[in-house]
Design goal:
- With 383 residues, the chain is of the alpha/beta class.
- It has two domains: 2-160 and 353-374, ATPase, nucleotide binding domain (Nucleotidyltransferase, domain 5, 2-Layer Sandwich); 174-346, Nucleotidyltransferase, domain 5, CATH 3.30.420.40.
- It is 43% helix and 19% strand.
- The protein is built from 13 helices and eleven strands.
- It has helices at residues 40-44, 51-72, 87-93, 98-107, 128-145, 154-160, 211-221, 229-242, 264-277, 282-311, 326-338, 356-363, 371-374; strands at residues 2-7, 12-21, 28-38, 118-124, 149-153, 169-171, 179-184, 189-196, 199-205, 315-319, 342-344.
- The strands form two sheets. Strands 5-4-1-2-3-6 form a six-stranded mixed sheet, sandwiched between helices. A five-stranded mixed sheet has the order 9-8-7-10-11, with helices on both faces.
- Strand 2 (12-21) and strand 3 form a beta hairpin.
- Helix 2 (51-72) packs parallel to helix 5 and helix 7 packs parallel to helix 9 (264-277).
- The chain is globular and about 70 Å long.
- The structure holds 5'-O-[(R)-(carboxyoxy)(hydroxy)phosphoryl]adenosine and zinc ion.
- Residues 10, 185-187, 212-213, 215-216, 227-230, 233, 320-322, 324-325, 352-353 line the site of 5'-O-[(R)-(carboxyoxy)(hydroxy)phosphoryl]adenosine (KG4).
């Protein structure tokens, strides 16, 4: 089976092509293409993601990115005569994306219908205006190529992002489940019990800001560009080597009797520290980053460890943009090693949003012939 996957839930336009072979119970995956067109530089100038601006960028980039992904997968052949398209139906479908419609009509009919078995697309959670671009693009391709579409939950994608091991071809070891999953991104912070693929129960989540959001907001206070995670992490590492501790911040909800988080208070504590301290020297900035990262990571590790003990899983899956964080990786690995629990992180390039994880998750979804008309964006979609 060959799957085309589309991801537009935030500020990364993602296209992936994945081949799946073998039994459904033990599939082997082969990556044909995994392309990302990142809008980070655009949003960096504004200090965050503006949904309507992100939507426009997705609409501009998605058709050429998809063509490039399919070409790289050797699935696109120039048509001798242009593909006949029911442009009336397409116009209605892409009514709200006139720019994408124009590019679609110019590009897609040039090629023969590719040998694809399904199109997987992120339907939530995320920014609804940007999700709609991916969904409508998937529906348009499904219409002109007559290929089924499957809706995918972005967070289910993050869970399955850990299995590639940085390789082109990979499997999902059955012993990985049941697993406990820590999902940490710009929009989410959740501890999830994954009994098996597709059977997910949220045990706890953030009451306010997501972990990545807190990194981004603290970075902004300190004058670092969006997204702030990597910058904070780099400064924190410098301070850790110097080992002079200047600041102390709270560990919100560390001792609370649940699996919930709160990062808004920590962010405010950083704000008050900056206000009360006066001018910060470069060493002060580094140490503040170190203390903030220590505090956030300590709470994440502590709660994950508690959940592992309660649910007695032998593996932990970490997904989402913040899973790229080196300090989190080190501390979690250290803590779980003591418990004899395996920890799985995504290849760093797959920590942040990508369509490959959507393709993997899309394989496990059931194709439904009504999906094309029923699919809609759900910004708050739950696992
Ligand atoms: O999963 P993702 O790409 O998008 C969402 O679905 O939200 O996550 C993006 C988030 C941003 O908040 C970014 O600052 C954070 O992941 N991030 C990091 C690191 N790299 C990315 N946070 C901490 N340390 C990092 N190295
Ligand atoms: Zn994400």
């Amino acid at each position: 089976m060959k799957i085309l996957a589309i991801e537009t839930s935030c500020d990364d336009t993602g296209i992936a092509v994945l081949e799946v072979s073998g039994a459904h119970s033990a599939p082997r995956f082969k990556i044909f293409a995994n392309l990302i067109s990142s809008q980070t530089d655009l949003h960096a100038t504004y200090g965050g993601v503006f949904p309507m601006m992100a939507k426009r960028e997705h609409a501009r980039n998605i058709v050429p990115l998809c063509v490039a992904g399919l070409k790289q997968s050797k699935l696109l052949k120039k048509a001798k005569t242009p593909l006949v398209i029911n442009s009336k139906k397409l116009e209605i479908l892409l009514e709200r994306e006139p720019e994408m419609l124009e590019i679609f009509l110019k590009e897609i009919p040039k090629y023969e219908k590719p040998k694809l078995d399904r199109i997987a697309v992120t339907v939530g959670p995320g920014l609804e205006p940007t999700l709609w671009v991916g969904i409508n693009f998937a529906r348009a391709l499904s219409l002109v190529w007559n290929i089924p579409v499957v809706p995918v939950n972005h967070m289910a994608g993050h869970i399955l992002s850990v299995f590639t091991g940085g390789k082109k071809s990979f499997t999902i070891p059955t012993k990985s489940f049941p697993a406990l999953s820590l999902l940490v991104s710009g929009g989410h912070t959740e501890i999830v019990l994954a009994k098996k693929i597709g059977a997910y129960t949220i045990l706890g989540s953030t009451k306010d800001d997501a972990a990545g959001e807190a990194f981004d907001k603290v970075a902004r206070m300190l004058g670092f560009p969006y997204p702030g995670g990597p910058a904070i992490s780099a400064m924190a590492d410098i301070a850790r080597k110097a080992s002079t501790k200047i600041f102390t911040l709270p560990r919100p909800m560390l001792r609370s009797d649940d699996y919930n988080f709160s990062f808004s208070g920590l962010k405010t504590a950083v704000l008050y520290t900056i206000r009360d301290h006066g001018k910060l020297s470069p060493d002060d900035v580094n140490d503040l980053c170190r203390e903030f990262e220590d505090a956030a990571v300590e709470v994440l590790v502590h709660k994950t460890l508690r959940a592992v003990k309660e649910y007695k899983t032998t593996s932990v899956i970490v997904g989402g943009g913040v899973s790229a964080n080196t300090h989190l990786r080190t501390e979690l690995t250290k803590a779980l090693k003591k418990e004899n629990v395996a920890v799985l992180f995504p290849d760093k390039k797959l920590s942040t949003d990508n369509a490959l994880m959507i393709a993997i998750a899309g394989y496990f979804e059931k194709a439904n012939k009504n999906s094309r008309s029923l699919m809609k964006a759900d910004g708050n979609l739950k696992l």
